[in-house]
Amino acid sequence: MENILKVEKIEKYYGSRSSLTKAIDNLSFEVEKGEFVAIMGSSGSGKTTLLNCISTIDRVTSGHIFVDDIDITKLKGNELNKFRREKLGFIFQDFNLLDTLTAYENIALALSIQNVTSQEIERKVKKVSEELDIKDVLNKYPYQMSGGQKQRVAAARAIITDPKLVLADEPTGALDSKSSRMLLEKFNYLDDLGATILMVTHDAFTASYSRRVIFIKDGKVFKELHRGKSSRKEFFDKIIDVVTLLGGDLNDAL
To answer: How many domains does one find in the chain?
Structure first.
């Protein structure tokens, strides 16, 4: 299979020479095209720093990160902006929708920036809105939508440009259980479409919808779990077992 993401021996330090903190410690892993992978770890484990480095919000101290065979650790200026625009999709915990735009306009914005024709934009928005069950809210503003609807609009915005990698940062963190379940089921649909998703979460229920979970501890890969042919419930139970090994609070994982 083709690797979309390759993280190769990365390290990330914060602080001054006299007081250094190692947030990521010689960490390596790969994500294949079409995979839905979750990253789990307790607070301070390095999972958010890892996501920030992959998303190019932050830079690694050493090592390399390849997305679609591009070494993103070497990108600067316009090349970096072009990479973010064309290769990455983002789904945030707090939605990050523009309040002055309708759902349709929020989804279409990325295509408009790329000078896609209005007819093609309309076709793509219609298709993705049907698949994510948000046709009824396309003419509504964010304040008129539920949290679940806003997050599915955010998911549509993230995938509308056919990015190589979708990065999701605690995407169910602001949702109730029903809305979370609906969003995660749609994530599995995106997975089936060939979208590659890397999701950071502290929540075992959320992680159980993925196909693989990478556990991070002290900036290193602690363990990996593959779902394989296990049911979601069976996979959830396995995730809980690892969370217990990590010394996590189960109340934070359920």
So the answer is: 1
Question: Whole-prediction pTM value?
Answer: 0.88
CB–CB of 10/24 below 8 Å?
Answer: yes
Query: Residue length, the chain?
Result: 254
Please report where in the chains the tokens 């079409």 appear, as a residue.
34
CA 177, CA 198: separation in Å to the nearest integer? Answer: 21
Reported as type and span, the H/E element at residue 86 is: helix 77-87
Which CATH number covers residue 123? 3.40.50.300
Calculate the dihedral angle through the C-alpha atoms of 129, 135, 140, 142, rounding to the nearest 10 degrees.
Answer: -40
Q: Which candidate, 144, 107, 136, places its Cα nearest to that of 123?
A: 107
Q: Measure the CA–CA gap between 31 and 38, rounded to whole angstroms.
A: 11
Please answer whether residues 177 and 161 qualify as being in contact, where contact means their C-beta atoms are separated by less than 8 angstroms. Answer: no
Q: Which domain holds residue 76?
A: 3-253
Distance (Å, whole) CA 92 – CA 171: 6
The list of the chain residues with pLDDT below 70 reads 191-193, 248-254
C-alpha distances in Å from residue 169, one per residue of 9, 104, 122, 200, 241: 22, 23, 28, 5, 23
**pLDDT (0 to 100) of residue 179:** 85
Q: What contacts 79, CB < 8 A, 6 or more positions away?
A: none
Neighbours of 17 (CB within 10 A): 6
Q: What are phi and psi of 148, to 5 degrees?
A: -65, -40
What is the structure's pLDDT at 168? 92
Question: What's the one-letter identity of residue 64?
Answer: H
